[in-house]
Amino acid sequence: MSKTIKNMFNSKLTFEKLLQAHERASIGKKCRKEIILFEMDLETNIIKILNDLKNSKYKFGNYREFIIYEPKERIIKSLPYKDRIVHQWYISEFVKPFFYRRFIIDSYACIDNRGTHNAVCKIQKYMQKMKKKYDDYYVLKCDIKKFFYSINKEILFNIIKENISDKKLLELTKNILSTEDNKGIPIGNYTSQFFANIYLNELDHYIKEELYVKYYIRYMDDFILLVPNKEIANELNTKIKEFVEIKLDLELNRKTKYFPSKFGIDFCGYKIFETHILLRKRFKKKFKKNIILWNKLYYNNKLNYNKMSMSLNSYIAHSNHCNSYNFKNEILKKIEFVIDDNFKI
């Protein structure tokens, strides 16, 4: 496979591939008005996207902004539906096949067949190895301050440019990154999570190939290093801080710290030890809070059973990946209405 992407834009730009991108972009959203309208004249709309891309005339629309408050306050930006089709096509045809092979094996976010639960299992495996080798060891837990809002788009584009020599693809990449702000990529864009991985892949290779850290895991902008002692943890912390500031124009969050392994590692929604994995206290609190709310809505005949079932299934699924049998028994008893018999603990 070629080291760079070249002369592939037009060959990948077909009606069939854009139609497939539409199918992926519309999963679970078929009832939305903008998608219904798009599908009313599907063939014409797909051909219009194809021709505009082919002739370098494609223009992205304006963002719709809204705020979410879980797990913390964030500004989410959403593009018109046709733009989300283009993003799907761009990622599927170019980013996944050409950039994924450059990612290290211990990067877990937004990569097929990896994800949070695999990351948790891997870090526990690494902890067990460190325990066997050193007994007591240190954990360096790092986090990037306001990561998505702080990504330097010029640096990101230059990283991507090292891997792309196709002029039309570079032009489209520049258009995707083009916003009023010099810094930051929109949370909510399908492309953003992949661009974020490409950005921090530079850090991954630095830690593995220049700092020679064997036991390292990253999930988006949260990353863990397991090291023999406090002195090494302090030294690595200083070097990583310098690298992200100088090379990536980022800043480590004040939550970044190093500590003895006996305290366990708070990572990807769990508290991880060598011998067991627990739910985070924040997760338990949120679960209990939602059950109180569901009970209240039930007695006021306002409970949306479908929405409740989806949330409950999600909570149970998350809990099933750790040592939580007693907690699940206790929490489900607090539900004051009949739930589906298919729920398992």
Structure commentary:
- This protein is an alpha+beta fold and 345 residues long.
- The protein has 14 helices and nine strands.
- The protein has helices spanning 9-12, 15-25, 33-40, 42-54, 81-99, 115-134, 147-150, 153-161, 167-177, 190-209, 230-246, 281-299, 305-319, 325-332, and strands spanning 64-68, 74-78, 138-143, 215-219, 222-227, 257-260, 265-267, 270-272, 277-279.
- The strands form three sheets. The protein has a four-stranded antiparallel beta sheet with strand order 4-5-3-6, sandwiched between helices. Strands 7-8-9 form a three-stranded antiparallel beta sheet. A two-stranded antiparallel ribbon has the order 1-2.
- It is flat.
Give a short summary of the structure.
This protein is of the alpha+beta class. Helix content is 52%, strand content 12%. The chain has 14 helices and nine strands.
Biggest β-sheet: strands ordered side by side in the sheet: 4-5-3-6
Per the principal axes of the C-alpha atoms, what is the gross shape? flat
Q: Whole-number average pLDDT?
A: 92
What is the alpha-carbon Rg in Å?
23 Å
User: What's the total count of β strands?
Assistant: 9
Question: Secondary-structure element order, as H and E?
Answer: HHHHEEHHEHHHHEEHEEEEHHH
Characterize the main sheet: 4 strands, antiparallel
Q: Share of helix among residues?
A: 40-55%
Proportion in β-strands: 5-15%
How many angstroms does the end-to-end distance come to?
Answer: 47 Å
What class do helices, strands and sheet pairing give?
alpha+beta
The total of helices stands at 14
| Poorly predicted ranges | none
